[in-house]
Write the structure tokens for this entry.
Amino acid sequence: MSDSSSSRPLVTFDGVSKRYGGVTAVHTMNLEIYEGEFLAIMGPSGCGKTTSLRMLAGLEEPSDGEIRLDGQRINEINSVERDTPMVWQSLALFPFLNVQKNVEFGLKMRQVPAAERQARARKWLERMEILELAERDISQLSGGQKQRVALARSLVTEPRILLLDEPLSALDANLVIRMQGVLSRLQKELGITFVYVTHSQSEAFAMSDRVVIMSQGRIEQLGSPKEIYRSPASRFVADFVGANNILSGSVSQVGSNLEIETALGIFQCDPGSKGAHRVGDSLDMVISADLVQISQDDPRIQNSLQCRFISEEFVGSIVTLFAELQDGSDFKIQTRQRDLAKISLEEGDTFFVSWSAADAHLISSGRVLDA
Amino acid sequence: MSKGASKNLLLRGYVVLVFIFVFTPIVTSFIFSVNSDRFPTIPLGHFTTHWYETIFADPDVWDAFRVSGIVSITVATLATFIGFCTAYTDYRYNFTGKALYLSLALLPPTIPLVIMGLAMLALLARINMSGEIYSIVVSHVVLCSPFAMAVIRMRLAQINPDLESAAWNLGASNWRAMREVIVPFCRPAIASAFCLTAAVSFDEFAVAWFVSGLNKTVPVIILEILQGNTDPQINAIGSIVFITSMTLVILAQLILMRKTINQTATGI
């Protein structure tokens, strides 16, 4: 988010750790979340993303450090005033209350008079386009409708921040896309902060201003979706996000371009503006699958490799090719179906992949080397 | 195929036999309760409600029903409350000694009733609490709470653990979440536990016999009538007790089953 540095942080994670017995779920986490931003926290299961969210919701207390909401320690704010509502993966709608009563729940806890409660609940049901379901039982709703009830229930108190814990994981694919649209629009219209925990890259990248990638209780990278996609900060992020090919090697020559020596040959790499590499530095070269060109004949440039075709996977107009390099490692190529039509490949066929020196991204011992 | 069919037939026959075995005495007792002959012999005499009239003309029997009624409703209330609290602590908390806590909580029904009755009498007599209605209540609460706990615990096992957290997250205190979420969710099980414990208390003889003193419950008065004379009065009163208990137990089952089916259908 471009203006994030100018707005003030709404939430601050200040050296937050969470331990359960001997297991550390979250490790000295520092993070600032700004007013009005859509922040996604993403990582594999068990990376500490849900624990972080639960601490932010005040449901768990940090073992060390503190989380501040608008300057106040979360666990010192009483439950009624905290107002950090959460949309649960299981939705956690109350099965013994109808839709309207579910939405009113947060207001009831805040002693809002019945008439006002009803009016506010109905306003949100209308906003979520489910007013006609107000009297229904939860059991009579479809997945998408339940989703909207859960959103209305969380937003009815008009909080400044909404926490979402993998809310779309139970929906089928086309409904996910639709709900992503609903969430994005809602967040922009309301201008409040959304903190969205997910393991799905497409959800995180489609909606958020900034993405936090977590692994084993630590933040691996924090940045815009584009930064994370194009400049992964560590090998973990490069593996976890997108479709990246990683070649390990070491610097063999420093010039206008770096030369990287790997088991498969020597490759050219644009070190970018910040690069300070010496001969002998070991690093990983990340080549995004969508920046790779393919050809049937040897392109006779330095950054090319011969590989053997294994299989392909169509997702709409984009095709992912899976190939094997000479040393047996995998190589992925993403291309438009239109471009693929120019060459014909059968299983076992060999072909060539190539990329430009500027498109290879370098990672060294977890540190970013290029800009 | 014919082998499978005959096996099936055999199994069905077996089930029917088991039911006959279980219900014959009860059905017999009911039949003789409306039979005019004084002794249970075949062929039967004519239909009569005489024995029921005799029973209800007896003030001691009325008194026994009154005591049983007071006792079973009080016991059901207390035992359901205690059972709920025990089940909730089991659901919500983990602590050292939890296994011991649970086995102690579930222990009473495994103690032979005569031993339990004797022990209760010994204790209550020592602290001058025996022979009163509340003596029966105390003893029956001990006996019935585990049943209530078992029923409510089953219900709590079905709850989505996020529900309570969701209530806290929406601003409820611990108590408020209990009142607004846990209790409503458990309501069918609570109603069911109430009926079940009322039935157990209403039926129970051995412990009541030891501690009741002059406040006889229905099962105790049945034994007295039986000792005094043998006529179909016993069958009449037995049938009433049976119908009362079965109604309560079946009600308990129905309440629980209906709600469970509803909620399972929602997938929540």
Notes: Chain B touches chain A through 23 residues (CB under 8 Å).
